Amino acid sequence: MFSTAIVKTPCENLTEGLSAANLGIPNYRRAREQHKKYIAALKSCGVGVIQLAADEAYPDSTFIEDAALLTPHCAIITRPGAPSRRGEIDGVRPVLDNHYQDIEQIQAPGTVEAGDIMMVGSHYYIGLSERTNPAGANQVIDILEKHGMTGSMIELKKVLHLKTGVAYLEHNNLLASGEFVTHPDFQKFNIIEVDASEGYAANCIWVNEKVLLPQGYPGARNAITRAGYETIEVDVSEFKKLDGGLSCLSLRF
Ligand code: CIR
After folding, report:
1. Ligand 1 near 81 CB (within 6 A)
2. Which H/E stretch holds residue 190?
3. 122 in Cβ contact with 147 (< 8 Å)
4. What residues contact 142, with CB distance under 8 A and at least 6 apart?
5. Whose CA is nearest to atom 6 of ligand 1?
6. SS (H, E, C) 22-44
7. Are 245 and 161 in contact (CB under 8 A)?
8. Catalytic one among 11, 45, 204, 248?
9. Is residue 164 lining ligand 1, measured as CB closer than 6 Å?
10. 129 CA distance to ligand 1 centroid (A)?
11. Does any ligand 1 atom lie closer than 6 A to the CB of residue 244?
12. What are the CA-CA distances from residue 46 to residues 41, 149, 173, 250 (Å)?
């Protein structure tokens, strides 16, 4: 169960964020409104929310998930692969100091964005992507092992981050789309397939037995409901324009 989530307020420069989506420029006001509702949805799952102030120096900084991996035993501050995002880690360190005794840090030449890391109990799957390299993934695995956990790597083919296409919903249930549906490493899970036409909805988050999913994906919603979960729809259309989704918008621990 999670007790806390950390979020970072979207900045006005969000409009300058990285994007390959080709869905247009996000509307700042709408993004702020959607972010408020996202926070309300998290709270309705019983977590306390720590909200960090916006930082105009980093257009993508609202996607705070990429800046740190929070485990029950340690926090790992990443080293984002996107050069424009590298300084985002300075904004998360102070809040982590209040919650963790052991804080580790990924070092050059390693790069890691934690949207590439999926927690399944004490094992962590680490996507090798354009943002997370083998040197970074190996550092993550060494740190996890030092703290009694394990990690393994998954090669990504198409998606930005591992959790762009897969979400662990606990109880051995894995929501998956595209390249992950038939991935050999994931066949031990109960795969809940998200059709390619609703691929964006594979980025959901399990929060204390409820599942937050993006608004407007009825097939995915039905599949998750059929698997026994209460779902909460959240409109994140402005963040989708920047290739971001529900998981990217918070750190949960
Ligand atoms: C980026 O390209 O880095 C941002 N525009 C989106 C980051 C999304 N984060 C995530 O999937 N964990």
Report:
1. no
2. strand 190-193
3. no
4. none
5. 244
6. CCCCCCHHHHHHHHHHHHHHHHH
7. no
8. 248
9. yes
10. 12
11. yes
12. 9, 26, 22, 15
Residue spans of the domains in the chain: they are 4-252
What distance in Å separates the CA atoms of residue 119 and residue 125, rounded to the nearest whole number? 7
Q: pLDDT tens digit string along 130-152? A: 999 999 999 999 999 999 999 99
Tokens for 35, please give them.
């972010």
Could you tell which of 11, 38, 60 is best to mutate to test the pocket of ligand 1, judged by most ligand atoms within 8 Å of the CB? 60
Compute the distance from residue 242 Cα to the ligand 1 centre, in Å.
Answer: 7
Topology (CATH) of 4-252: L-arginine/glycine Amidinotransferase; Chain A (3.75.10)
CB neighbour list of residue 134: distance below 8 Å, 6 or more residues apart: 128, 153
Nearest to 167 by CA among 132, 143, 191: 191
pLDDT tens track for 229-240 = 999 999 999 999
242 lines ligand 1 (CB under 6 A): yes
Considering the candidates 11, 161, 183, 204, report the single residue annotated as catalytic.
Answer: 161
Mutate which of 6, 236, 248 for ligand 1? The one with the most ligand atoms within 8 Å of its CB, which is: 248
- % of the chain beyond a pLDDT of 90: 99
Mean pLDDT to the nearest integer, 232-249: 98
Q: How far apart are CA 11 and CA 236, in angstroms?
A: 15
